[in-house]
Amino acid sequence: MRLKALFWILFTLVFGLLITVGFLYARSDFKIFVLIEGITLLALVLFILFYNLLLKPFRTISNGMDLLKQQDFSSRLRPVGHEETDRLIAIFNKMMNQLKEERLHVREQNRFLDLLIQASPLGLIILDFDEKISRINPAGLRLLNLDSENTVLGKRLDESGIEIGKSLASLKSNEDIILRISGITLYRCFRSSFIDKGFSRPFILIEELTYEALKIEKKSYENIIRMMAHEVNNSVAAVGSTLTIISDTLKQHENNELSDVLPAVEASFERCNHLSRFITNFANVVKIPPPILSKTDLNRLAYSVEALCNSECNLRNIRLTLLLSENPVILKMDGIQMEQVLVNLVKNAYESIGTNGKIRIITQSFPPQLTVEDTGPGINEEVKEKLFTPFFTTKPQGQGIGLMFVREVLINHGCKFTFGTQEPGITRFCISLPER
Question: Any bridge partners for residue 417, and if so which?
């Protein structure tokens, strides 16, 4: 623009001067007037040539710079008829073609990556340069039990309220860890980074391992239980038969010197029966049949369990109450298995309380949930991590199969569940049921 302004200033000065001088000699000296007019015409031709050789190409190049500034890679410059300038324009147009192809390629890649991130079964958390959450994909929202990413955007992981947020915040670059939630849900979390605007920007991948781990675990303890059941039942059967023969023989000769052994023989026989029942209980856990789904009202299920468990609760001075949804909560499930699950949870609750306490069964219609809460002593984190481990129990006479049964039935029904003491004096087992 400055060169163009100087051109027009020079043009005005030159032609203004020539015209003025021409008028001065127009009457006094005609020959000088003609000479000045000739010089004026020559100057006009030179200015036109100067404009075509310099200013017009310059304007064309300036237009090209504007196209670059506006990122308009679709437009092209026209040749101006000047060899050097046309070479420059050809190079410029070639560069614009390459930029257009590069931008199209980048957009296609970005679109593909966006689709991949949205459809990925792996959870993805992208952080900004200040370690704050800038994006979470749908799988990440599902795995972290978040309704919307807006609730955590702009927050640091350890301040976001995400259950595993503090553990994720402690991850270092290229480090991965296995995290367990609610004693059953397993996550593998990996932190890495990518380059954005020349700087390293972190992201975290979250993979759920729950069902794969449970499948391996179940296969392992199924094999162990089958082997144990086979060996124990064979041994118990042989020992039981021998003890029966000994007992019958001793009863026929009550006055002999071995009659004092009879109580010990009978106690040993009863112990064999107890061992057989013990191993049978374990075997039954791994033989849980697939659920037979039918329409079941969750509220009616709660009433049924209340009737079954109320007498035991009354003996312990424990108040069992129902807080049910106003509308029926009708879902497809195996009513018999789910009733047994609820009985197990209430039984665990009143055994945990001992005496003098409260238990509530709560149902919710949207989203469908079933909750059992009690005023027992609560569960510490160490025990919480092991509660759903096969054969683990905190009871002196327990076998560790109650929660195993609960876990298997709920997993077979596609339920999600949490178990823990969220507030002082209140322990909750919350089951989220799938809508079918």
Answer: 431
CB 153 within 8 A of CB 134: yes
CA–CA gap between residue 80 and residue 91 (Å, rounded):
14
Q: What are phi and psi of 197, to 5 degrees?
A: 60, 35
For the ranges 46-60, 231-245, 403-417, the one whose mean pLDDT is highest: 403-417
pLDDT of residue 319: 92
Whether 311 shows a pLDDT value over 60: the answer reads: yes
Distance from CA of residue 106 to its chain's centroid?
Answer: 27
* pTM of this prediction exceeds 0.70: no
Give the pLDDT of residue 218: 67
Question: Whole-angstrom Cα distance, residue 394 to residue 53?
Answer: 95
Q: From CA 182, how far away is CA 163, in angstroms rounded? A: 10
For the chain, give the secondary structure using H, E and C.
CHHHHHHHHHHHHHHHHHHHHHHHHCCCCHHHHHHHHHHHHHHHHHHHHHHHHHHHHHHHHHHHHHHHHCCCCCCCCCCCCCHHHHHHHHHHHHHHHHHHHHHHHHHHHHHHHHHHHHHCCCEEEEECCCCEEEEECHHHHHHCCCCCHHHCCCCEHHHCCCCCHHHHHCCCCCCEEEEEECCCEEEEEEEEEEEECCEEEEEEEEEECHHHHHHHHHHHHHHHHHHHHHHHHHHHHHHHHHHHHHHHHHHHCCCCCCHHHHHHHHHHHHHHHHHHHHHHHHHHHCCCCCCCCEEEEHHHHHHHHHHHHHHHHHHCCEEEEEECCCCCCEEEECHHHHHHHHHHHHHHHHHHHCCCEEEEEEEECCCCEEEEEECCCCCCHHHHHHCCCCCCCCCCCCCCCHHHHHHHHHHHCCCEEEEEEEECCEEEEEEECCCC
- Contacts of residue 259, defined as CB under 8 A and 6 or more positions apart, other chains included, come to 250, 253
**What are 364's two structure tokens?**
């919710």
